[in-house]
Amino acid sequence: MHALRKNRPLRRIVLASSATVSGVVLLLSLKPHTAPEPALALPAPAGSASASSGSGRPATGTKTVTGDTVQTRWGPVQVRITLENGRLTDVTAVSYPTDNPRDQEINSFALPRLRGEALQAQSASIDTVSGATYTSDGYRRSLQSALDSAGT
Questions:
Q1: 14-33: pLDDT as tens digits
Q2: I need a surface site. Which of 45, 58, 73, 91 has the fewest CB within 10 A?
Q3: Domain 62-150 classification at class level
C-alpha cells in the first residue's frame, strides 16, 4: 500500500503539517543580512584646518594612548596606539586571550591581521577576522576608545 492513498487522509495531513512546520523553522532560523556599521573615523588632528587656530597644519609630535579593556567571551582585549603628527603609526595588543593553546593559535593569526587593517584604514573601521570574532570585536572597540581618547 502506498502511504499517500486517498483512503488514508490522516497520513497526508500529518505529512503536510510536518513539512510546513519544518519549512517555517528553517525560514525562522535564517539570519537576516545586516548593514555594515558606519565608519568609525580617526578624530581630526588638533591643528587641522577645522580647528579654531586656523594654522592649517597637522598636529606635530608623538602621542601614545591605551584603549579601554574590553571583556569578551574568552577574555579581555586591550590595544595601545601611537599617533605621529595625527597619523596612526602603530597598534599594539596589550592584552588578549591566552589561556589555552587554541586562544594562542587564534590570536597569533588574528592580531597581525587586525593591526594591518587598522594601520591601513587609519581608523577602527576594520573587518572581523574569520575564526576570531570575539577578539576582533574587542580589538575594534578598544581601538575606537583609544582613538576617541587621543582626539581630546
A1: 888 888 988 888 777 765 55
A2: 73
A3: alpha beta
Residue-wise pLDDT tens digits, 108-148: 899 999 999 999 888 888 888 888 888 999 999 999 998 88
Give the pTM: 0.59
Measured in degrees and rounded to the nearest 5, phi and psi for residue 138 equal -65, -40
| Domain positions in the chain | 1-31, 62-150
